[in-house]
Amino acid sequence: MTNWTKAVMAVSWLCLAAFEVTAEPKVLFDSGETKALSPFLEPLIPKKQAEAALPPRPPLDSRSYGLPVQTPSMTPGRVQPRRLPALHGKMGGARPLFLVGADRWSLQWLRKNKDRLVALQAVGMIIAARHPDDVSILRRAADPLSLIVASGEAIATTVDLRHYPVLIAPPGLMAQ
Fold first, then answer.
1. Residue 164: what pLDDT?
2. Which residue in 150, 171, 153 sits closest to 161, CA to CA?
3. What span, in angstroms and rounded, lies between the C-alpha atoms of 9 and 18?
4. Whole-structure pTM over 0.90, yes or no?
């Protein structure tokens, strides 16, 4: 094999390797039921090695939840049921999503609609909270529903929402 052939092969391999490394993953479907990988790996990793690999859990404080969280374009208030053209027909197999905040209105709405939310297997987002206690109160009220803490700004902008609490369900319907 000549030096020229070797050089061409080396450059080809480098280009191929660079392409593979820079490829970004695509999310095809997110059910909202993310599970830790550790239980599946447990049988494969010796116990001492597994214990050493796990980082210590942080205490329950503001950093654990990413607090304070806020959604500046949204406030507690009445929401008129309507179709959401930006989402109509695009939600596929997605689960219903509800948005709440750490306020009296959201807590009352959550308690009143809990059975319906459970039946729909909805996932909740706490879009306005200041303290870990706020999150704890909402999680107790929502149990057994899943709640995450995150700003709802992107959702508010996409579907032109100004108030919460709200339920967004396939095929792109919004209701309070």
1. 95
2. 153
3. 14
4. no
